[in-house]
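Quick illustration, no need to memorize.
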Amino acid sequence: MSVTVKEMNRFLIFKLPSAYLCGVKLKELNNDLAIVKVKHRWINQNPFKSMYFAVQSMAAELSTGALVIKKIKESGKPISMLVTSNKSTFTKKATGLITFTCNNGNLIDEALKNTIETGEGQTITMKSVGIDEKGDQVSAYEFEWSVRLRTKK
């Protein structure tokens, strides 16, 4: 079963309502790439007239996590996922429409294959970059995801 953009955005409403309310939306999802957009507005601003870092973090995480969710669902196996660490860098005020792109979908396949074969947890480090409407980078994130085959108890 494939995961679609529409299903993921519906998921936000019910499972991550703060991201939904702040305007975080998945725009594109395929085997290699996920694109998430969020526009700077009153609800997601900080006192410095730019987008609050936590909103950027939600958008960046979604761009990596949507790929992991898609690949897990397609594997048909009971696999859990968890962010085990993250790192962020901010290079410019985030104003206007910010686009977060992760193109590390290829990294997930090997980790899922290994966890299915060995039963041992695997980690994947995925990068998401936030770009404003002018094409300037505003932030960059690295999320370390842990995937593990669930065992029946």
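The two ends are 25 Å apart (CA to CA).
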